[in-house]
Amino acid sequence: MSLLQYGFKRQKISDGLTQEDKQNPKNHQRNLKNSNFNKTFKIKWLSEFPWLHYDSDNKKMFCTLCMKHKMKNKFAAEGAANISKKSAVKEHAKCKDHTDAEKLETAHIQMKSLQNQIFLSDTNVSLIIVVMQVVARILIAIVKTIEDQNWKELSDVVAFGIMIDESTDIITTKHLDIYVSYVTKQGIFKTHFLCLLPLTECDAKSITNVIIDIFLKKGILFKLVAFASDGASIILGKNEDVAAKLSRVCTYPLIVNHCVVYRLALACKDARKEIEFYKKAELLVKKIYGYFKNSCSYIQQLKEIQDLLDCSILKIKRLYEIHWLAWYDAIKNICDSIPALLRIFKDAKNDGGHELYIKLTS
Length: 362
Fold this sequence. Notes:
By secondary structure, the chain is of the alpha/beta class. It contains 16 helices and seven strands. The chain is elongated. It starts with 18 loop residues before the first helix and ends with a helix.
């Protein structure tokens, strides 16, 4: 039976080719290759590369592993635009950033698995709690023994001095750190941590009362002859500061000192405002830290070159405005790592590395 007998007509289906394409078939093949038809992302790649993510809105490919571990490459940052090239995906899978990210992810999974094995067992949880309680009791006993020895030595000395500073714990509770310095009967000079006291208020009167109370209870307040702290106005101000209030209750004239290290740090901070070289050196140290800060591959490269050159394995550290000792460590580590840093920056494939190489060699 044919549909033609019911009035249907046979029509030729167009092949979509123009007269020019029919006369020149090669032109048609070239047009297909250059058309957007082939410039598409293949969904099947997602199964072959589990870490691959395709952003259909922006037409870009991303690597979820490199993004998670904060790697610095196209697949982790702005995304790869050559979405039709599987070779680009394969090339990324072999690059050092991606292999580093895979290693980090494997280590993370193994650690998570180990934690689950330990903590999912009720027996293990009970055992861990018991062990932690025992360790806590041992530490408390050790601390109590050391504290008793320190107070006993203080009760036997003729005089002592204190150094104080304020600190804040993770729940933002203010504390007062007290250190003591004294000479024992055997003529040995000692300086050590004494105690950490909570502060309800941070004014001069409250701090003074805390200091007076603890030494008054031990019966040794009359032996206090020296006091040192930073330059905070409530501690070493002009009138109603902590030092002034302590002086009124001490048996002997109180020797008051402003922390020497802190004063030196303040002097250096003031000096850098006028010395141009200081500003340039500070900026250079910060740029070197920034170069390594978010790149595991750069940090690993530095370690490998330090090891190759038989240099100490040193970390590039950050500068902190209020932590003056951190400045020394940061600058010293860079100075000790100059040969390795020059090798890295000279071979760098980015402008940042080349800029740092020029600055270090100029």
